[in-house]
Structure formats: structure tokens, C-alpha cells
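Problem statement: downstream parser choked on a complex file, so we are re-checking the raw output for the ribose-5-phosphate run. The parser issue turned out to be on our end (a line-ending mismatch), but while we're here, posting the original submission so the record is complete.
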Amino acid sequence: MNVKQLAAEKAVEYVVDGMKVGLGTGSTAYWAIRKLGERVQEGLKITAVATSVASEEQARELGIPLVGFGDIDGLDLTIDGADELNHDLELIKGGGGALLREKIVARGSKRMIVVADESKAVGTLGQFPLPVEIVPFAWEWTVADLAKLGCTVELRRSGDGLYKTDNGNYIADCRFGTIASASELAASLQNITGVVEHGLFIGIAALAIIGKQDGSIEIIEREHGE
Ligand SMILES: O=C[C@H](O)[C@H](O)[C@H](O)COP(=O)(O)O
């Protein structure tokens, strides 16, 4: 059973004619984009923006109409994956390096649906190293500042060199083990000048659709105003 596909295809049921849709990034969002492509070929009328070069290419190949950010002032719905999520729908994202674009797109959406398999649902965030996008300039100092927050930091690599995001920045993967307060940590991260954005998504996702090995789906909805 492909539980990522199960969750992703359920989320696509929320898409209706006329919607402006944000396309997430990663191996779960892949299935949502694929299903959306099928529905577009069957006549669904939507426009979309993508959160990464990879998702944009996938959408284009499937014939999903893409628009520029200057053409629209917001989105109705974004469907995206997560690396970890807790019961308050606080997320860790950025395992695929797309967190900055993902956060811009999700924040510009009336609703964000997270799609994930059950391994991503945790009691406390932090087992997954938190991806933090940092500028290459003086990255050594930024990494040192991040480590002062109580994590071990590894600069993400790719092949022989350092990994670069679609925006030309580096990713520092910060292993906290346990994140007691995501909002306090988010505030501390935002205070570090070399940090462009971090992978904590707090108060952004409205709904999570979690695919389970037994073929069932769990839906978690965030209380309004939480
Ligand atoms: O940068 C990547 C994104 O935040 C992904 O949504 C996240 O890493 C989950 O990816 P996957 O569905 O491949 O586990």
C-alpha cells in the first residue's frame, strides 16, 4: 500500500473548479500533483503555482496551468508534505530543501492541507533535524549561532559540494532531539541575521491527512485561532 499516495489523493478531493492551488514539494506532494494532473486532463479548471523547480516541471509536464505570482494575489488551497507533524499541526518541513518557497506559498493560501504517512505524525517535534535556510555569506558564524540554541548542526551536502536551495542558499540541518516549544524556537531562529527562513510551520496548516498502512486515513483539523 502506498500510503503517501493514499493521503495525497484524498487531499486532491478538496480541489474544485476555479481554485488557485499551491503545489507542494517532495515524494508525498508528488502524488497530489500527479492526481491533480489527471483531474485537469479530465476537465478540472484550476490555476497553480509551484513551491520548487521540481514541482513546477512535474506540473508543466502534466498540463497543469501555472501562473506567475504577479498574476494572482493569493491562493485558495495549498497541498504539501511534511517531515514531522504534531497534534497541534505544527510542522517540520524542508527535508527536500524547499521550505522557503513552501512557507511563502502556504502563508499566501486561505488553507493549507498537509499530506503525510503515519511515520511523520509525532508527539513532540525534533527527532527529524530541523532544516534552516541560511545565506552563504559568513555561514560559519550563522552555524555557530544556531548551535548556541542547543542543537548539533550539519550543513547539508550534495555530491562533492554543499547543497544549494532553489534560491541559492545553504541548508543547516539542526538536530534538537526534542523541541519543547516550537514557537519559542521559531522566535530565536528569526533573531539570527544569517537565517533566511526555518522549517517550523506554526499556525499555518489547517488540516492534515495521514495515510496509514492498514489503508485507513486519519484527519487532524487545527482548532480555529489556535
Ligand atoms: O522541502 C521539502 C518539503 O518540505 C517536503 O514537503 C518534506 O520534506 C516532506 O517530503 P516527503 O513527502 O518526500 O517526505
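For whoever reads this later: The chain has six helices and 15 strands.
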